[in-house]
Amino acid sequence: xxxxxxxxxxxxxxxxxxxxxxxxxxxxxxxxxxxxxxxxxxxxxxxxxxxxxxxxxxxxxxxxxxxxxxxxxxxxxxxxxxxxxxxxxxxxxxxxxxxxxxxxxxxxxxxxxxxxxxxxxxxxxxxxxxxxxxxxxxxxxxxxxxxxxxxxxxxxxxxxxxxxxxxxxxxxxxxxxxxxxxxxxxxxxxxxxxxxxxxxxxxxxxxxxxxxxxxxxxxxxxxxxxxxxxxxxxxxxxxxxxxxxxxxxxxxxxxxxxxxxxxxxxxxxxxxxxxxxxxxxxxxxxxxxxxxxxxxxxxxxxxxxxxxxxxxxxx
Length: 315
What we know:
By secondary structure, this protein is of the alpha/beta class. It contains nine helices and 14 strands. The longest helix is centred in the last third of the chain and has 25 residues, at 229-253. Belongs to the ROK (NagC/XylR) family.
């Protein structure tokens, strides 16, 4: 059996694991992402993390064929370059991600591949997670931001400019307050992410007049659970916006299955029920039986999907 190292490079932490040809994470390690120190420092730290895993794999007699990376930012998967990123990782834009890692690890350039982290997440779920065995799947993740990926025949659809999957950045009728569109972190306004992300739910609670001293969406969910009317409204509005957005995307893409992921999906019924209700209300008649499933792999999904970039199930 062949093995690969999958790397999940996020804004706050970088996790990597040795993944088998059947999608099992054998062992993994995590380090903080040096998100204020620039691309070279991040590549140095990531290479050190991967090197540690390569040593462990070699000691266990495992044949590692390459390294796959799921990274924050818009990743030009053809060149392995970060073409766009937020300030969550300073100095990340322009980083030669795959070439830089390959050089530091002494690997052939083709042995290191990279995509955006949500694409890696979706690829993991389509391989061994909730969408395993399907020919197509739409994954949408709702957490600090909103992202998605459409996996078709085992490959995430990346888009002509590798920006595919930015499903948080189209218009939502829910993202308005007093007749004005709610500002979005992308610089636009009235977008799905501006109303359906975790921070957006907290902002909606404040905007609607909530006066309890809560710092984030988790606090708003706690208040909703204690029957706070404004918190219930903020959660319900965010969940409905999420569901309507996913339903609309499903109408366009007609996936075999929808997988919903991210921190908000882990909140359980108070978020999931209104989300799925709004999703199903949006579907065309031909899609009424569409399976809508929670993600299965948790924090391992992006590692598994990243490894899949360089790994086949042949053994």
